Structure formats: C-alpha cells, structure tokens
From TrEMBL:
InterPro entries: DUF6192. It comes from the Bacteria. This is DUF6192 family protein. The lineage of its organism: Bacteria, Bacillati, Actinomycetota, Actinomycetes, Streptosporangiales. It holds the Pfam family DUF6192. It comes from Nonomuraea harbinensis.
Length: 237
C-alpha cells in the first residue's frame, strides 16, 4: 500500500471513533462515505449527519452511497443527476482547450444551442470580440505581404476608419447622455430631494461639466491632457 494511501486512511479513521462508524455496507462504499463525510469540520454535525442517510430513489430506502456522501459535502459525484452536476462533469472533461474548442464547435451547429447562446450577453460579447481579434490578425498577416507604399496607404486608411469610429463613439456617448436625461427628468416632477441627494447630484453634474469642457478643449486644440484638478474631479474625488 502506498504511504499516502495509508496516511489518508489513518486520517479518515481518526475522524470516526469506532463507536461512530456505520456498518452494513460494502467496504468500498463504507470507506468512501466515511471519507467524504470526514470533511465536515464540526464533530457533532459529522456524527449526526451519518445517522440520517438521504433517500435513495432506486432502492426506495434511506441509505448512503458514494455519490450521496460526496453530494452532502459538495464534492464531484461519480454519476451526476442534476443539471449542475452534469455541467460540472462536462467542465472536468473539457479542461483540455483543444477538446473544449472541438466540442463547442460541434454544439454550435445545433440550432437550439445557438439560440440559448445568443441570449447570454457575456457569451455573445466574447464571440464578437474573438471575431474582431481574428479579423485583425488576418489583416495584419495580409498587410505583411504587400509592398511598402501600398502598406502605408492601407495603414492610413485604417487610421481614418479608426478615427471615424472613435468620432461616432464620442457623438454617440453625448447623444446617449442627453437622451437619458430627457427620459429621466420628466419622471422627477413633484419629487422632493433630500439634502444628501441634492449634494450628490450637484457633485455628479460638476463631473459632467468638467468632462464636457475637457472634450471641447481637446477637440479645439488637440490637447488631450488633464490637469490634476480635473483628473481628480472626474475620478469623483
């Protein structure tokens, strides 16, 4: 017997005095159940738990099994039954990134799976981000193969596209703020503000004014630098 196995068994035995151990099951199940429940730190809770086995659907009796004991202490079960247990099992099998990528590709060919994925905003954001990153890699590889003059022209075009996109983002941010304010203000008719609420709103309005002045100055002069006072204001300090 390996020394580690011997020490492990000795630890499990130390958690269960002889009079607290449960008989009537095979050694394998017996040992696994006691080992799993040995992880319950509170001694009284541990001894009480083993006296109340859960319902076993197959045998229609209350009994301990390896999976039941593992389930009680949050360990991975050998035969998952719930959705979350099955998900955990799948995650264990997909630790290899190449295997996970192959399985994900196969699953996304199923219409029902795709419809579920598009409902998850985080998943869709990651997919879109991956598509953009892939496009950038392909563009960079193709750019390496063209002559230098053409490469420079392409680079200038890409910078112009980036500039246009950033310009649209800036205009959109301003429009979003104005639209949001236009929707919120009418709902405040008749609302009484506390002193703390007024102070908080005025503090945030000062940040808005500081941001708009910075934007206007940057557009007019091309200087994007911030003085310390404005930087602190925008951080909310």
């Amino acid at each position: 017997m390996p020394l580690t196995t011997l020490l492990d068994n000795r630890w499990v035995a130390s958690r269960w005095p002889k009079e607290r151990r449960q008989d009537g099951v095979s050694y394998t199940v017996h040992n696994t159940v006691h080992k799993a429940l040995a992880g319950i730190a509170d001694e009284d809770a541990r001894f009480a738990k083993i006296l109340h086995p859960p319902w076993h659907e197959k045998s229609k009796t209350h009994r301990w099994t390896q999976d039941a004991a593992k389930r009680e202490v949050g360990q991975r079960v050998n035969h998952p039954t719930t959705v979350q247990e099955k998900i955990n099992k799948v995650h264990d099998l997909l630790e290899d990134e190449k295997v996970a990528a192959r399985v994900a590709t196969d699953l996304l060919r199923q219409p029902q799976v795709v419809s579920e994925v598009v409902e998850d905003q985080t998943a869709m954001h990651l997919v879109n981000r991956a598509q953009v990153d892939r496009s950038h890699r392909i563009a960079a590889q193709r750019l390496e193969a063209v002559p230098q003059p053409t490469k420079q022209a392409i680079q200038r075009a890409r910078e112009q596209v980036r500039h246009n996109r950033e310009y649209i983002d800036l205009v959109g941010a301003c429009a979003t703020f104005v639209a949001a304010a236009g929707q919120i203000m009418p709902t405040l008719r008749g609302h009484s503000f506390t002193e703390e609420e007024r102070e908080r709103v005025h503090a945030n309005l000062a940040r808005v004014r500081g941001a708009t002045e910075w934007i206007g100055q940057a557009i007019d002069t091309g200087d994007l630098s911030l003085d310390e006072g404005l930087a602190a204001l925008l951080r909310g300090e």
